[in-house]
Amino acid sequence: MRGTDQTVSLSPAGERVGERAFLLCLLMTSCAALRPIPLPKEAELHRAKTDDGWEVSLTRYKAVGETKGFPVVLCHGISANERNMDLDEQHSMARWIASQGREAWTVSLRGTGTSDTIDADHKRPGPIFFDDYWRHDLPAVIDYVKRTSGASAIDYAGHSMGGMVLYAYLSQGGQGVHAAATMGSPTRLDWGTGMESLLKTLGPVFVSPESMIPSGVGALLASPFQGAMEDGPFQRFFYNPQSTETETWRRLMVYGTAPVSGGTALQLISLMDTGQFQTFDGKIDLRADMAKITTPVLVVAGRLDRIAVAPAVKDGYRALGGPKEWLLMTRANGSRGEYGHMDMVIGERASTELWPKVLMFFDKATPVAPLPSGPPEVLPSIPAAR
Q1: Total domain count for the chain?
Q2: How, if at all, do strands 297-302 and 177-183 pair?
Q3: Which residue segment(s) compose the domain that 229 sits in?
């Protein structure tokens, strides 16, 4: 009997479909291999309600051993969530702080993580602007942490936009912060990436204030290809392989990124255009008002940070009223590798090279004015320009 095996020939179009299907399966398999690492059992999940009716999520780590000092609130930057500060056991500023005898709280600002996002059916029509974070989210978080922990104040560590949120809050008379550290937090957005003109041109065309830009999905899809190209775009802009391993960066892309609200994107793009650090309606010059800040602040920059370049971060340091300290993370100052933007929170040696300096600053900080014993002042809600 003759065999019945036959060779099936595909048309060029069929071959292209097959190749795309194979690549899609490969991509999905690669993404699935980098599953989020769940939080440990000691992590407590909390929610704080803002004065405009939104809920923001927090994760609490109680101090290990004897409690020392104030609880520490850790806040992420743009296109991120609280897992930036709590990626896994080896890359968690929050768990490291708790291990040093300090209570630690991570927060996801509105529109990120498991916090409330835009939802017209639940009376949250949006937009979400940068101003909402410091006018509504941060006051609620400080009040909630103080009440839950029984503390008279908090210490604060903000990365990137998380530090800018603190600057805005304190500049407008915000209370309840004993000392703070900002890491890679610029007050000039017209200096830095070299992409300012492109963002200023295309941003207003393709982004609406009410939209949510799905940057987290893009990061997830790009994660399997990280490290395939030496000095690729992500390495060039976000991290230095001398300080952060590619596998750590991949993990951050899978579950440490979040959508960006269109309103926030447009407000930050407007700051690129004007060179100012101001509210969306242009009525408050936040940089000028930073001279009124008397809370002690440690300002940290990375020498290889191409998102928040050192001069743009130094601009915020100069604007602060004081007390203040400046720290540039670089080999010349003792680090084993140069620091990029994300290396300050997920770097392999951040727990020995940077975080102890932040905690030491908190321990020695003495505010100029007495700390309030009551809840923080609730800042007035000023409608942002639409």
Answers
A1: 1
A2: parallel
A3: 42-364
Positions of the chain with pLDDT lower than 50, given as ranges = 1-8, 10, 17-33, 369-386
- d(C-alpha 140, C-alpha 147), whole Å: 11
Residue 242 lies in a domain: yes
Distance of CA 245 to the CA centre of its chain: 19
Which CATH number fits the domain that encloses residue 122?
Answer: 3.40.50.1820
**Is 370 inside any structural domain?**
no
Neighbours of 171 (CB within 10 A): 23
Q: Is 377 exposed, middle or buried (0-12, 13-18, 19+ CB in 10 A)?
A: middle
Residue 297: its pLDDT value, please? Answer: 98
Residue at 339 is within a domain: yes
Pair 158, 186: CB distance under 8 Å? no
- In sequence order, the 6+-apart residues with CB closer than 8 A to the CB of 15 are none
**Using an 8 Å Cβ cutoff, are 76 and 162 in contact?**
yes
Q: Is there a contact between 309 and 282 (Cβ–Cβ < 8 Å)?
A: no
Site of tokens 């300050």:
344
DSSP H helices in 181-292: 196-206, 215-222, 233-237, 246-255, 262-274, 286-289
Q: Is residue 379 part of a domain?
A: no
Q: What is the pLDDT of residues 300-314, one digit of tens each?
A: 999 999 999 999 999
Bridge partners of 342, per DSSP, are: none
Secondary structure string (H, E, C) spanning 301-337: EECCCCCCCHHHHHHHHHHCCCCEEEEEECHHHCCCC
Among 202, 203, 205, 200, residue whose Cα is nearest residue 189: 200
The CB density around residue 340, as the number of other CB atoms within 10 Å, is 27
The pLDDT score that the predictor gives to residue 272 is 87
What is residue 115's three-state secondary structure? coil
Alpha carbon distance 194, 192 (integer Å): 6
Going by their DSSP bridges, the two strands 260-261 and 212-213 should be labelled as antiparallel
Report helix, strand or coil for 85: helix
Backbone φ, ψ for residue 337 (5° rounding): -140, 160
The residues pairing with 326 across neighbouring beta strands, listed in sequence order, are 299
pLDDT in tens, 241-266: 889 998 898 888 889 999 999 999 99
